[in-house]
């Protein structure tokens, strides 16, 4: 069995020693350890992967960890067992490139998740869902019916025991009604190099400003639009010879890559959020 | 002899044909031609390099070009003779990395300019100027003496017949008094990926926002701070493990590279400004 | 109507002038012109796009161009009418990532081609073809039956009037029997930064050498393995912490991007091959 | 006081726990810990930084570490005290760009080394050494006088107690006579993306091959030419429009950046060599 352990706590001497000693006594073999200290904030972060050749009880392991280690150091912590696939819902609108990219990776076995359903405020992409034989729920969304639509969304998320949501170019603002149920568990792709060009039509804004590089940003969704903790960013060069249409075409490739990397990091439990920023373990 | 010709004018059919025909009749051999049309704005841009084996009179060439070509198409145009080095003034404050980089390139013959002087609002970097045997003028600058300082600057610029100014991390705002004398002839390096983090302390702002990529931007100085036409940008990846000090260290390398590229482009007459953007010929 | 014209010929004065004059007299409006001179080789290259508001006869245009321009300058040239989609065959083996990527782009209308069929030496990926409703031909290929297999391939290519072939991780060497029918019309993706690590298992070789950057290369197929004219390359950083499996996963994204860019360039008629190199117009 | 500890040893359970426990008992506060396991080779690597508020004796610390930890796990290890600047010699020939770059960083305090001297097989760059007031030794080097020249080099290196050597475009092959005295302590910059284009004139070879990306590689010097453990690499895009001269100009910037990064990593004790590869701690 293999466990992945994520820890954050107030920084002090002895944490690494205590945790590694605990694992050693449990007959664990540490195959990965990375830590980070934010000195200004005084916070310690650690991610470990430990293999156990003998069978161990996950429940008693958790209890022992809490009593012997976590309480002493006031840790926020989580322990994940390897090989359990999280359930990921995908929200889309009309653009298909990120959806195709995620489903191709899923179908190849590259992306280790279950995808119980795809949800959209439009019917346009149901054909893609059909190609990959995944349920597609069409939930119309306008200001007038926001509340009903959100209740419908929450019902679907609950029924399918969704662990996290990916907004694969979902062109609606997700409200606190949903965010509060999935704190730091909704991943968005924004088609600009944030914080530049937040909000609508970033490629048009980038074109108008005459930038020489465009970008894409994947972040956890928080109440403030396009202002959540950044998980991953990437860029591509452009020039005066590129039209807005060219920006959009180049941007599609960026969006696909950046979103898929962020999803991979989330699924591999390599992200910790604090102070509206992320620690990303490599 | 070799001439470089820059043209912009309202777009219409026949411009390329007319210009290339004109050069052919002057016994010119076109060794470089690049053009661009901004369809939305309806503006045509072209850059040509033409070699002439026979001696030609530059004065009569200019006159003929104006009468036979430029007037007909309502061109803005400029013609430069190869091998004449522009005079470049460097303004600095306390950071030496961009200054060292420019002077090293100058000393190697890589940067084909003359540098009549370095000007600073501090005395700190006079030792670098001394290393490279270039005059260093210390012109203090505070709000109270702004007007006198600017007159002193203008006097030095005029006396030395400066063609363009490079702000190599000059930590003062350049006012319209200077800008109007050097329109699109003052090159600044800003230590962020504009338009993100304009203004003071961009590395601190980037760190606080938790970005995964930092950047540097070189642009022509206009009245609005950090909002002039962008010439060149580049980026570098960062992570949670990097401190603000690391951002600054990584940024220094970006700043040097981006500024030197922008200066090269300007010196090679590869930039045209319009609509607060640049056309950069490759 | 819009035409794209590709030209290469011995360099001499007057070519641009003659060609643009010719187009002007045909009432063409040049919307794109880029040229390049390889001074060492003494070869001139040009790509033009010209719009014609009046109807013109493509046949007589070609004839006139040949007689009035091409013959005089000993040009190799081709003229393409806009909006005619070339027919592209895709060859695959067992990896699906490049295939999924190309078909997603095709399905979105991003890739302006027809795809009459997918061909493979294995039956593994027929399900992908089925998802996108494209014919899939399984043509087994071993040394013993090479000749029969190649005849079968040529028959399929001819029947479907294929214009060019994309090897989307096709793990067989394509022999001169096919190459000679499709000179500079077979696009391969090699999973290394050529010329480093040509041949089999480049990720393993890169891992063993301890490189800090891996790459992918798209090139036209020639008789010498992995030595054809390079169309496009890109790279990604790696570190000691990445396993060969990580190299392969990172490489998949590179391969998809680099191959699709090369296909885009080919389809847009932006490539000219000479001296086993490419001119790539931007 | 702050210590940096580098460890490599056969992989087994309990190493991290033992080392961190040891440091905890010495009242050390671990401010950095990164580890890596090469599973195939069965080797464990770790780098730690630990602060000690109480004064400790470095000599007894080393002895205790050896007896209590290192011997048990058969470690190769080294312990460095913070704030002691290593002595770096720079070898150059005729190109000044890497030399200027290193000296500028040194003069700014960015590069925490001492530079007792610059050595060259030509007299060309003595003026740069003079600008920065560093001794410059001109040691001519030809096949006929190789042995004498190497003895002269070794004498200078010994007299100045040099810790490591940087070949900043030193255009001579360094022989085992020198390498054996400085194993994995001679850093070279090669102007290609190794293993592509090893040996002489890599830009010419890259140009001939028609690559779309060029690179630079910094590595530790071993007996086989350009085949030592790679420390750092970076790349830049090129196109058909770039001449060999352009490749060289673009390459200069790559060389400067890549070499300076490698020197930084070495000085910060962030490199471990094994199996002709490097572990580079971030």
Features:
homotetramer; alpha/beta; Alpha-Beta Plaits; Rossmann fold; 2 domains; 7-stranded mixed beta sheet; 4-stranded antiparallel beta sheet; 13 strands; 28% strand; globular
Give the topology.
The structure is a homotetramer of 282-residue chains.
Chain A: E1 2-10, H1 15-25, E2 28-38, E3 43-52, H2 58-70, E4 76-81, E5 88-92, H3 97-107, E6 118-120, H4 126-131, E7 136-138, H5 146-159, E8 164-167, H6 176-179, E9 186-190, H7 202-209, E10 213-220, E11 230-237, H8 244-267, E12 271-274, E13 277-280
Parallel strand pairs in A: 5-6, 5-8, 6-7, 8-9
Antiparallel strand pairs in A: 1-3, 1-4, 2-3, 9-10, 10-11, 12-13
Overall mean pLDDT score of chain A? 96
Structural class of chain A: alpha/beta
Oligomer category? homotetramer
Largest protein interface, residues of each chain: A-B, 32 and 32 residues
Strand content of chain A: 25-35%
CATH superfamily of the largest domain in chain A: Formyl transferase, N-terminal domain
Question: Per the principal axes of the C-alpha atoms, what is the gross shape of chain A?
Answer: globular
Order of helices and strands of chain A: EHEEHEEHEHEHEHEHEEHEE
As for the number of domains of chain A, it is 2
Q: What top-tier CATH class of the largest domain in chain A fits best?
A: Alpha Beta
Number of helices of chain A: 8
What is the CATH architecture term of the largest domain in chain A?
3-Layer(aba) Sandwich
How many strand units of chain A?
A: 13
Pathway (chains A, B, C, D): Purine metabolism; IMP biosynthesis via de novo pathway; formate from 10-formyl-5,6,7,8-tetrahydrofolate: step 1/1
InterPro entries (chains A, B, C, D): ACT-like_dom_sf, ACT_dom, Formyl-FH4-Hydrolase_C, Formyl_transf_N, Formyl_transf_N_sf, PurU, PurU_ACT
Family (chains A, B, C, D): Belongs to the PurU family.
Catalytic activity (chains A, B, C, D): (6R)-10-formyltetrahydrofolate + H2O = (6S)-5,6,7,8-tetrahydrofolate + formate + H(+)
